[in-house]
């Protein structure tokens, strides 16, 4: 089973090391190691073409399956034609493709996957890695509320993310929750999608399908995580029955939700990133004006493997996020909830990408003060102290974050401070949860504000110095 990158709400008073925003360098050691990895017991003859390398997770997985068992695999090629040809030539069953990054997803036996290594143009074989899904004062700490009240965007309106869509890849969203209700009664959710890769009811090669904007994909997934995260990004100004006033980091931005379900494997998440890559300019389809459905400029990804891991530049995730960066779309990652003392890197691997426009976010505890002087949360993943390339880029409030939650959903039930929404029937519809899952969407919202402030930014202009 997998889980999101959140933590159960905890009492205050963390004693963790003081966090500073650090810049990092590219670590080539992991890439070099992956480049020479392969299936156990398989070696390339010196007189033949070298076999394509295999991800260590897939190699280990194949060593434990029977000859007739099939497993999912991502076949990387020099282009999509090479990847598709390898799938066909080896008799694997195609699932979907990520055309822009030359990756074909399929299922195959151990022998078929082994055979694909020698097919022309195949560069890497990757497995379906299991991964985890990891406000009133929090937006004061990030200066989000200050920006909304004091700054103006390029269009002269409050700097609240208006004109920008944020894609949240998570368990789903409840579009009817009061935190997403616009002043005219409509929802902040402009596009609602569900990834159906590798399930019995798969939509076929498209893999990611649209559902009506009124459908609660979070309850269908028995989740709750996605609705809480989405509220931190785009929650509309709301007053609870006890007088507490809440809003998201970008309360004027639009939300594109891509549900992967409560349990998550990398193929579903990659399919969601691929959908953003192919549709970020027009997330609601042709003919829908940008005033109604703005382009996606940032994705939030509050999930990752347990225990972190080495950065893999050959992975489909990294290829997709680099392609997004090249097209002017930022990718925000939760750093992970594995803590650590700096003796090893426990940071979420894709967030370690040195490419500009890809941001890894740690959690800190502002102790309810709304300041930026808190300590790094004890659960927040840290990189290897001696290797700056593994350090998170920055931190944001992640402890005791109040946001949208339905009390009957699994994640929401872990919160320790349920609160009633503005309506008579909104009983327990807000709750407090902690985790780097809650820190990342604060940053995603601030990035949306930045895009609103600077509408002239062109693709390929990112820098990470």
SSE map:
Layout lengths: L28 H7 L20 H8 L7 E7 L2 H11 L2 E6 L4 E6 L1 H7 L5 E6 L2 E4 L4 H4 L2 H7 L14 E6 L18 E7 L12 E3 L6 H4 L4 H10 L3 E2 L5 E2 L7 E6 L4 E2 H14 L16 E6 L1 E2 L11 H11 L3 E5 L23 E8 L9 E2 L17 E4 L3 E4 L25 E4 L2 H18 L12
Parallel strand pairs: 6-11, 6-13, 7-11, 13-15, 15-16, 16-18
Antiparallel strand pairs: 1-3, 1-4, 2-3, 5-12, 5-14, 7-8, 9-10, 16-17, 19-20
What this model shows, in words?
This protein is of the alpha/beta class and 465 residues long. It has 2 domains: 56-128, Peptidase S8 propeptide/proteinase inhibitor I9 (Alpha-Beta Plaits); 132-453, Peptidase S8/S53 domain (Rossmann fold). 22% of the residues lie in helices and 20% in strands. It has 11 helices and 20 strands. Strands 6, 7, 8, 11, 13, 15, 16, 17 and 18 form a 9-stranded mixed sheet that branches. Helix 9 (266-279) packs parallel to helix 10 (316-326). The chain is globular and about 70 Å long.
The N- and C-terminal alpha carbons lie at a distance of 38 Å
CATH class of the largest domain: Alpha Beta
Instruction: Give me the CATH architecture of the largest domain, please.
Output: 3-Layer(aba) Sandwich
Largest sheet: 9 strands, mixed
According to DSSP, the number of beta strands is 20
Structural class: alpha/beta
Helix proportion = 10-25%
Low-pLDDT parts are 8-47, 135-139
Quick check: average pLDDT?
Answer: 84
Strand residues, percent: 15-25%
What count of domains describes the coordinates?
2
Quickly count the helices. Answer: 11
Shape: globular
The CATH topology assignment of the largest domain is Rossmann fold
Radius of gyration: 22 Å
Fourth CATH level, the homologous superfamily of the largest domain: Peptidase S8/S53 domain
